[in-house]
UniProtKB/TrEMBL annotation:
One of its GO terms (biological process) is glutamate biosynthetic process. Coiled coil: none annotated. The active site is at K139 (proton donor). NAD(+) binds at T222, N253. Substrate binds at K103, Q124, K127, G178, S389. PANTHER family: NADP-SPECIFIC GLUTAMATE DEHYDROGENASE 1-RELATED. The record marks D179 as: Important for catalysis. This is Glutamate dehydrogenase.
């Protein structure tokens, strides 16, 4: 009796601590809904650990974790092909360096603003911690849209962006990489400008081309990692990907390699999408065609049907209305709401793993969990990309490069460990099977304990 009253008191104290923190975050970052959402999801998971361990509140860990160490905003002026002066806004959030130099991608997309980079940077702290590698959390980008721009325009933009960003990054301080809108072409231009203003230092950026310090398997890593994670979730239930019908949203870097690996492991991916709509191909999406359209020609996904007349394109269609065993959202944040989650459940989905960052709304996650759908949250399921980025940094440091097989086998075991850690942590905190709680707590503990050791900074 006494024990349970004490426990309730401690839980109440933890709940009031997290509520207080959430209020401060909202007040200090008004109208930044994506950032609020990422913090809310995280704080909800932490109550059991905060109730058990008052030391985190005593050291103001949540107050410090939710405030970026540094937020840099800058003007990015450039000139388009017609001689017009354009101005975009550049960002880098250096969120937390408790366990290593800031690490995280750059996103170039018109939707990028302070809220988006903060939500991404905040999640990156715990994702990076889960990889087991020594990398802190950061993120950045710009509201620049590479879509429809010429290569020269993209180059001039990247050069201007890096002229400012280079003041704040370096192999031991902050190591950017790609994200939406930043692929091999952009990383090349960014690296070239960094080198021109500083020196050739391969460890400054990851996702580089193989000729100048890139790592084999980095291109494939996020997509492959999502599928390895899905495989772990299924294996725990004595199931596998063999014969499963899969929907993958998006058709960018994450989606392409998720499709490729899902097919390799015996599943059939029947649909993928871009911002104009989705394509459906019951024979299985031909990944070579998607690569050609998206990686080389930079075309719309609707073009797929000209190569495969049996497939259909649904303009502005809802990919989540299709029925499948497995759903892999690999497009962008908040692409699945509660209604769409309910439709997936009704249509028989058994597993969902997030390739994009925060693709499911809080309500959508609740729908999956209430219906016992295996749910792999982004922080855990899509950590393969940044994990191989850390392996790229390691190779750059020792001035060597590993084979595809070596890096792939590291990736596989990292994804396996993330799953095991998240699953064991969930069980240890009475939330067996809840990988959201497990990932958040496991990611938190390593960072929070390092912060305790390093003093009030
Ligand atoms: N942008 C990716 C992510 O969301 C990769 C970051 C990196 O490789 O640093 O994790």
């Amino acid at each position: 009796m006494v024990q349970s009253t004490t426990l309730t008191k401690e839980v109440e104290a933890a709940e009031s601590y997290t509520a207080r923190i959430f209020e401060t975050v909202k007040k200090r970052n008004p109208s930044e809904s994506e950032f609020h959402q990422a913090v809310e999801e995280f704080l909800q998971s932490l109550v059991p650990v905060l109730a058990k361990e008052p030391k985190y509140e005593a050291a103001g860990i949540l107050e410090r974790l939710t405030e970026p160490e540094r937020l840099i905003t800058f003007r990015v002026p450039w000139v388009d092909d017609n001689g017009n002066v354009k101005v975009n806004r550049g960002f880098r959030v250096q969120f937390n360096s408790a366990i290593g130099p800031y690490k995280g991608g750059l996103r170039f997309h018109p939707s990028v603003n302070g809220s988006i980079v903060k939500f991404l940077g905040f999640e990156q702290i715990f994702k990076n911690s889960l990889t087991g590698l020594p990398i802190g959390g950061g993120k950045g980008g710009s509201d620049f849209d590479p879509k429809g721009k010429s290569d020269n325009e993209v180059m001039r933009f990247c050069q201007s962006f890096m002229s400012e960003l280079q003041k704040y990054i370096g192999p031991n301080t902050d190591v950017p990489a790609g994200d939406i809108g930043v692929g091999a072409r952009e990383i090349g231009f960014l690296f070239g400008q960094y080198k021109r203003l500083n020196a050739f230092d391969a460890g400054t950026l990851t996702g580089k081309g193989l000729n100048y310090g890139g790592s084999l398997t980095r291109t494939e890593a996020t997509g492959y990692g999502v599928v390895y994670f899905t495989q772990e979730m299924l294996q725990d239930k004595a199931d596998s990907l063999k014969g499963k019908k899969v929907i993958v949203s998006g058709s960018g870097n994450v989606a392409i390699y998720a499709i490729e690996k899902a097919h390799e492991l015996g599943a059939t991916v029947i649909a993928c999408s871009d911002s104009s709509g989705y394509i459906r191909d019951e024979n299985g999406i031909n990944v070579a065609t998607v690569k050609q359209l998206k990686e080389q020609e930079r075309k719309r996904i609707s073009e797929y049907t000209t190569h495969h007349p049996n497939a259909t394109f649904v303009a502005n269609g809802d990919i989540w209305s299709l029925s499948a065993d497995i759903a892999l959202p690999c497009a962008t944040q908040n692409e699945i709401n509660a209604d769409q989650a309910a439709t997936l459940v009704k249509n028989g989905v058994i597993a969902v793993a997030e390739g994009a960052n925060m693709p499911s709304t809080l309500d959508a996650v609740a729908v999956f969990q209430e219906n016992d759908v295996l749910f792999g949250p982004a922080k855990a399921a899509n950590a393969g990309g940044v994990a191989v980025s850390a392996l790229e940094m390691a190779q750059n440091s020792i001035r060597m490069s590993w084979t595809f097989e070596e890096v792939d086998s590291h990736l596989k075991s990292i994804m396996k460990n993330i799953y095991k850690n998240a699953s064991a942590t969930a069980s240890a905190y009475d939330a067996s099977g809840n990988l959201v709680v497990g990932s958040n707590i496991a990611g938190f503990l390593k960072v929070a304990d390092s912060m305790l050791t390093e003093g009030i900074i």
